[in-house]
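Design request, tokens follow.
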């Protein structure tokens, strides 16, 4: 089983890094991005199979407060 990916993102400029630290004068936020290819890493689709967002599910769940079924 592959290890879960961890990504650190600056909430101000949205730059990503694989290590913690500061960007834009503030600490980067840690995100658990799931295993490569997992459902958590896939874009969101609605119940009819239409693409709702190109963003991965882990990002949407963190910033929109929930998920919708695929």
């Amino acid at each position: 089983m592959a290890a879960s990916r961890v990504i650190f993102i600056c909430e101000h400029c949205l730059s990503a890094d694989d290590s913690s630290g500061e960007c834009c004068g503030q600490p980067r936020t840690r995100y658990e991005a799931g295993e490569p290819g997992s459902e958590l890493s896939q874009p969101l689709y609605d119940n009819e199979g239409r693409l709702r967002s190109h963003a991965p599910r882990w990002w949407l769940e963190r910033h929109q407060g929930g998920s919708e079924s695929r």
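Comment from the thread starter after seeing the answer: thanks! The helical segments are 57-64.
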